[in-house]
Write a structure and sequence with these properties.
The chain is α/β, with parallel strands linked by helices. It has 19 helices and 7 strands. It is elongated.
Length: 478
């Protein structure tokens, strides 16, 4: 069997002849004869798009006539006017294509690509690039594309060193950051650049990318085939990161190829166990749109209701590891706080709502800590569904047609003619009564004496029960 990685046409982004590092296929793979050709560079590098049409996702930035397309095509590269090369700041999560876009832009006509990392580069490196870019522009009519990764790590002085080159268009700066540029990039540089926001890749984007890498001559060249379960596992573990997805695919293919019979014909099958072994992460059997979604969520809520904090944390982890939307989990926690804990611990609802807001604010993976705190609070809190049962009983009476009318003394008496109708007459202002509780009829005539809320003896409701008994006795004149 030929090399399962395939060689295909030359690619400017190939990593030479060095085997992929950390891919599970360094040196002769297990079961592979040592004489077989080694893959040229990591799969993620070999599959890097050569044109904007090959870019996965970010379609909101890639429409016809968009600044990215104009820049990649080299429109106005020699002009100093509005059509001239525009510097970009690409803001988005890891693995969404920031480096890829920089490479595609650099492939435009009359371009030279220079890459710096804000982690290792200093002001001296920036100034050297600017000097070389000015020379290349004036002597060779070549535009330098400077890709600066993690620009948020540059301090103010380092970012200021970029300004002359950007303002005078000596370079096309393509700066990448995972942090909000409004807080991490100096205003003069931000105002001279076009800010483009990259969105996380969807599961469909990642799935398409993996399938392309399996078939493409630059990738695995059709030498492997993925089972549906293995594909789903790779997509889930990628977390919307294209680079992570391709690295995981390469590792899983290496394991499968090592297990394959050398005499077997046809593509090697990559199954779920291969992905689990390659990535050392067990697949979570969980279908976000099927029975598992509802079954695990049900078990999660019932564990909280049953005060089993350990089981509740297990199901929380299970949902999060399976890629469940943390906002869905947060909503279920808020409902549980009101339905199952209720007035036995009124602070549980406060914790649940705060957790839901915090998850929206900070996202994952840190959001799991907030959700865990809320789960622990609810699971260990005293339980009462009295408020939940109370509203259910009140709703049942309303649907049965009970509760006719409103006592005249409670009706609105603020509009002309209301007094002639008897509205408000005899109403007792509660704050004028002892303890701000007056003897007075509040419900409709047919619901007098009906008790909807029946507090338990659990937690804070022990005190509520005693107080409620006194309140009802005063109000009802008992």
């Amino acid at each position: 069997m030929d090399d399962f990685f395939g060689q295909g046409p030359d690619n400017d982004d190939d990593g030479g002849t060095v085997p992929p590092s950390g891919s599970g296929v360094s040196g002769p793979a297990a079961g592979r004869p040592a004489g077989r050709t080694q893959p040229r560079g990591p799969l993620a590098v070999r599959m890097r798009p050569r044109t904007l049409d090959e870019v996965v996702g970010q379609q909101h930035l890639l429409g016809q006539g968009s600044p990215l397309r104009q820049l990649a095509a080299g429109a106005g590269a020699d002009s100093a006017g509005p059509a001239g090369p525009t510097s970009l700041i690409l803001w988005g999560p890891p693995g969404t294509g920031k480096t890829t876009l920089a490479h595609v832009i650099a492939k435009g006509p009359g371009r030279k690509f220079v890459e710096l990392s804000a982690i290792t580069a200093g002001v001296k490196d920036v100034r050297r690039v600017m000097d070389e870019a000015l020379t290349a522009r004036d002597l060779y009519k070549t535009t330098t594309v400077l890709f600066l990764d993690e620009i948020h790590r540059f301090n103010k002085a380092q970012q200021d060193a970029l300004l002359p080159g950007v303002e005078n268009r000596w370079v096309v700066l393509v700066a990448a950051t995972t942090e909000n540029p409004s807080f991490s990039v100096v205003s003069p540089l931000l105002s001279r650049s076009l800010l483009l926001t990259l969105r996380p890749l969807t599961d469909a984007d990642i799935e398409g990318l993996i399938q392309r890498a399996v078939a493409d001559s630059r990738g695995l060249n059709g030498k492997v085939k993925l089972s549906d379960e293995a594909l789903a596992h790779l997509v889930r573990l990628s977390g919307g990161d294209a680079r992570r997805a391709l690295t995981a695919l390469e590792a899983a293919a290496g394991v499968a190829f090592g297990d394959a019979d050398d005499a077997a014909e046809g593509p090697v099958s990559v199954e779920l166990p291969h992905t689990e072994r390659a990535l050392d992460v067990a697949a979570v059997r969980y279908d976000r749109a099927g029975d598992q979604h509802y079954d695990v969520a049900s078990a999660f809520i019932k564990s909280i209701r049953g005060s089993d904090v350990d089981a509740a944390l297990h199901y929380l982890a299970r949902m999060l590891e399976a890629g469940e939307d943390p906002r869905f989990i947060a909503r279920r926690i808020v409902i549980s706080a009101a339905e199952d804990v209720g007035m036995a611990d009124p602070t549980a609802l406060q914790t649940a709502v705060a957790a839901a807001q915090a998850v929206q604010l900070i996202g994952m993976p840190e959001g799991r800590i907030v959700l865990a705190e809320a789960v622990v609070h609810l699971a260990t809190a005293p339980k009462s569904n009295a408020a939940y049962m109370g509203i259910n009983k009140a709703t049942a009476d309303v649907r049965a047609g009970l509760g006719n009318g409103i006592p005249a003394h409670l009706r609105d008496a603020h509009y002309p003619g209301s007094k002639q109708l008897g509205h408000g007459q005899g109403y007792k202002y509660a704050h004028d009564a002892p303890h701000a509780v007056a003897t007075q009829q509040y419900p409709p005539d047919d619901l007098v004496g009906r008790d909807y809320y029946v507090p338990t003896a659990n937690g804070a409701e022990r005190d509520i029960s005693t107080r409620l008994e006194r309140l009802r006795k005063i109000i009802r004149g008992g």
